[in-house]
Design goal:
CATH architecture: Alpha-Beta Complex
Distance between the termini: 29 Å
Number of strands: 11
Strand order of the largest sheet: 2-1-11-5-6
Oligomer: single chain
Structural class: alpha+beta
Radius of gyration: 16 Å
Helix content: 10-25%
CATH topology: Sulfite Oxidase, Chain A, domain 2
Length: about 190
């Protein structure tokens, strides 16, 4: 199991970037920004990292000239998928739901052959091919067992797959199945594949 720590509330002030540089074609945020996708993307609704206001991104050395910030409403507009993996934290099956990661990324114009750098609030970064996200049917979970994932727990979103049913993971020890699944996901950096 990865030893992960969780940052205090004060350190999370930069988690909710203000949408700036919004194009007229893109809707403005209706709630706090939960996921920032940057890099090789086709659409954007905010400008570069602000060294004063994007404190978490600065601490994690995230840089970009433009990005797309997704709020909870945008995530909930996408079709939800339910999975029921056995989780490493309590060795119990839980129902997780949220949109497919590939659907979220297609929303912002990410190419099918892209490479992803998925970053969690504690700085944990997972490199993943878009093709693997599709193969594993990875979701951006926003709910667990019918309740929203919360910041300070495993949320507000968690990139995860149903490890129990995937040949690449089902026979591994439980604590080794989820290395590609960052909880507290807040940033995805996209590069060309």
């Amino acid at each position: 199991m990865n030893k992960r720590h969780f940052l205090g509330t004060a350190a999370l002030a930069g988690l909710l970037p203000v949408a700036s540089g919004t194009s007229a074609a893109e809707p403005t945020l209706k709630g706090p920004g939960l996921l920032t996708v940057s890099g090789a993307i086709g659409k954007s609704n905010r400008g570069p990292v602000d060294p004063a206001l994007d404190q978490l991104m600065v601490k994690h050395k995230v840089t970009f000239d433009k990005a797309f910030v997704i709020d909870a409403e945008a995530l909930h507009r996408l079709p939800a998928v339910k999975i029921k993996p056995t989780l490493e934290y309590d060795a119990k099956a839980h129902t997780l739901s949220g949109p497919l990661l590939t659907s979220v990324l297609e929303l912002v114009g990410v190419a099918p052959d892209a490479m992803l750098g998925m970053r969690a609030v504690d700085g944990y970064v997972v490199p993943l091919k878009m093709a693997d996200a599709r193969t594993y049917r990875m979701i951006v979970a926003t709910e667990m067992d019918g309740a929203p994932l919360v910041l300070g727990g495993l949320g507000p979103q968690w990139a995860i797959y149903e490890a129990d049913t995937l040949a690449a993971f089902k026979d591994k020890p439980l604590k080794e199945r989820f290395a590609l699944c960052p909880w507290g996901l807040y940033s995805i950096e996209v590069s060309r594949g």
